[in-house]
Structures are given as structure tokens and as C-alpha cells.
Amino acid sequence: MEDKGYCPSKSTLYVAMLPYAYTNNDVAQLFMGFGKIARVTILRDKVTRASRGVAFVQFARAEDCARACTMMDKTQLESFTLSCTMSNDNGRSGEFIKKRKYSTKKVCFECQSSGHYSYDCPRNVLGSREKPKKKSGKKKTKFENGEAEIFFDMDAT
């Protein structure tokens, strides 16, 4: 993997002491006010899939991550006091940038039930959040609706 000047650990927040009932969606709602969130990962027990109360929140911009870290550290949440720090790179951060392949089954990521998605899961303690916007299949072009014709006509004169 070639380095393009982007280091995910500089824009990733380590959050400890989260309530165990919180889902990925709940953590995203906690931090969405600080900037665009690229990914939320709650660490879970391998066997029971129960939350360990720890999460990584990856922001699109390092500045947003730093601001969230200073503002949310030592914040009281239910009976827990959040602990937020900038994550340290252990050399494996590149593995987590790769696009994930999800199954074609339409089930909720949080509870594995069909009929709803994780952003609308009944397990979300903080409630539902807005449905993610679909990426349009339309490619961006340099010129819109005949602008290219006008540009090239002007070029010929």
C-alpha cells in the first residue's frame, strides 16, 4: 500500500468507558457534531459479541478528531466518565482503511435481524439517525449540460 500522506491514526479517536449498551450508531451520534465521521468501530467480545465499552471513531479530518478529543474527554455519560485520547498507530492502521465487503443479505449489523438497518435499529440507545445518503452512480464531469460545446465554440473563434 502506497502512502499518500494520509495517516488514519492522526484522525482516529480512542474512546473508553462507553456504556455497554451503546451501538456503533449511538457512538456516531455522540461525535457527529464535531465533524464528518468516516467509521466507528466498537470492540466486542469474540464469542458473545458483547461490547467491551471501547470504540475507535475515525474522522475525515484530523482537526475534528483533536477537537472531539479535548471536548469529550472526562465527559459524564450515564454512570460512566468517558476517556478520549488520540489513537496510536500500531502499524496495522492500513488494514482497516480497505473497503469492507458486506454480504448481500439485508440484515441489521447490530442485532442481525431483518426488516431494518443499523441506523434504525431498536437497540440504539440514543434513537435512530438520518439514513445515509446513497452515492449516485453518475460520474462527475468537467462540463455540465452543453457547457463543453460553448467552451469549444469560443475556442475556435
TrEMBL record:
GO terms for biological process: mRNA splicing, via spliceosome. Residues 108-123 form the CCHC-type domain. Keywords: Metal-binding, RNA-binding, Zinc, Zinc-finger. One of its GO terms (cellular component) is U12-type spliceosomal complex. Residues 11-89 form the RRM domain. PROSITE patterns: RRM, ZF_CCHC. Signal peptide: none annotated. GO terms for molecular function: RNA binding; zinc ion binding. The keyword Transcription regulation does not apply. This is RNA binding protein. It comes from Thraustotheca clavata.
